[in-house]
Prior knowledge:
By secondary structure, this protein is an alpha+beta fold. It has one domain (3-66).
Amino acid sequence: xxxxxxxxxxxxxxxxxxxxxxxxxxxxxLAATLPVPDAATVQLKDPASYKxxxxxxxxxxxxxxxxxxxxxxx
Length: 74
């Protein structure tokens, strides 16, 4: 499968045309046998396509903490 047809989403590598997925965990044993690529040849993602980096994500329990709910109070 050409690399250009693959992407990553929700903890898996996805083949675009067929929508087949393989989880990262299933790929670890194979990846461990590959040589480490030269840093100069690695192509990084364009920062404009980042989905999480640079976005603010609030804590799920911030309201309970600042309002002194019993779990977080003294």
